[in-house]
Amino acid sequence: MRYISTRGSAPVLSFEEAMLTGLARDGGLYVPETIPTLTADQIAAMQGQSYEDVAFTVMRPFIGDTFTDDEFRDLIAKAYATFGHAARAPMVQLAPNHFLLELFHGPTLAFKDFAMQLIGQMFQLALGRKGERVTIVGATSGDTGSAAIEAFRGLDNVDVFILYPHGRVSDVQRRQMTTPTESNVHALAVDGDFDDCQARLKDMFNDFEFRDGVRLAGVNSINWGRVLAQVVYYFTAATSLGAPLREVSFTVPTGNFGDIFAGYIAKRMGLPIKELVVATNQNDILDRCLKGQGYHKGTVHASISPSMDIQVSSNFERALFDAYDRDGNAVAQLMSELGQGGFDVSQGAMQALQDIYTSGRASEAETTQTITDALATTGELLCPHSAVGVKVAQELRDEATPMITLATAHPAKFPDAVEDATGIRPPLPRRMADLFERDERLTRVANDLEALKTHINGVLNT
Ligand SMILES: Cc1ncc(COP(=O)(O)O)c(C=O)c1O
Ligand SMILES: N[C@@H](CCOP(=O)(O)O)C(=O)O
């Protein structure tokens, strides 16, 4: 399996190289050259299998010879042993034919753990046997950062720097990043929003002297391994409801487009998915674009679902690459226009996107009301991101097709929004009950490439 860049002019890489490289050297994102498919029999056989067995079947065709089968099974087993639910991704029913896929039973209580725990294992094995050390820099609106710090804390061959927007993540998210004591992890509070953090991260990748000097690696969904690990739960969820004999639909609370893109990959692999619904909060650039209004940046407004306060949705580039028939030059042109404020999507590409994705948005008031109503009608406490998904799914689903809405975070990560909606302040699980008593360690850094590089180099050289 070979990996190519969405901008068409970076070296073609193996899975291991793409995983350790992060952003392609032409500024694009790596994608598999071809998407492997599974037969209906292979998919049917997943019914009743463990999450780990399904994970092996789904991901194996993508990893080439990076790991042997035994190694890969072992990495998967270790990755999900940290989860607090035997099913790893259990489902509950919200209404007739409407299900909630709970993706928050990992160590940091968000769906990011599914990929990050596995990436941590894969990096450790790959780097250990090469005898190499890397510097991971990540950008986060709250959940990727905490999941990355949890997955890499204390590991010998990595230093981790996480850029988060100062004052724009929940207290729980911030403390998950700032309270670990291991000296290889560093939380950097950037004076800007998530888009600024992600832009500075990409600037670092595009600064080859810095990139090569620190041996930069990425664990955002820039990294194909992140997207790949998220494909698995689409299979476990759909097969538990009767796939491949029965079609299902998914609604995905969306920001950086990694999770919904994983759903698209599942569909391309042969999973019968009828609708893939992109659910956005009030920062609805993706909803507007998918409704044919072009992709034009405005102002990001802080919301009660802060992890989705994103305008420059990184993985949308991967969706555009396929919509433009894998024309890297066309994608490079669009991304250059995005740098100037935005772009319009050609008619053919728009049709291709609309054939795959539908979309909706939830306002702040609708999100709060959905949390209130879900508790009253189902007893389920939703985090605000999951509530955005449930609200949009309720509006757009057809009642004949099972709809699976992804619950992307635990309500206890966003206790203020949940308490406002329900009067209930969800407690943290016992293992992190003392989170608010731990000391915090963070550095405030300007939204400036040179300041960030100087800080990172300074830490690495002490
Ligand atoms: C809780 C939560 N829900 C939804 C999202 C959006 O996911 P994606 O960025 O993959 O679209 C995020 C951030 O990634 C998140 O942290
Ligand atoms: N919502 C994310 C934003 C980064 O997304 P990623 O999937 O590219 O890592 C977060 O919580 O940080």
Automatic annotation (TrEMBL):
It catalyses: O-phospho-L-homoserine + H2O = L-threonine + phosphate. One of its GO terms (molecular function) is threonine synthase activity. The modification N6-(pyridoxal phosphate)lysine is found at K112. Keywords: Amino-acid biosynthesis, Lyase, Pyridoxal phosphate, Threonine biosynthesis. Its EC number is 4.2.3.1. PROSITE patterns: DEHYDRATASE_SER_THR (PS00165). Its cofactor is pyridoxal 5'-phosphate. It comes from the Bacteria. Belongs to the threonine synthase family. This is Threonine synthase. It comes from Sulfitobacter noctilucicola.
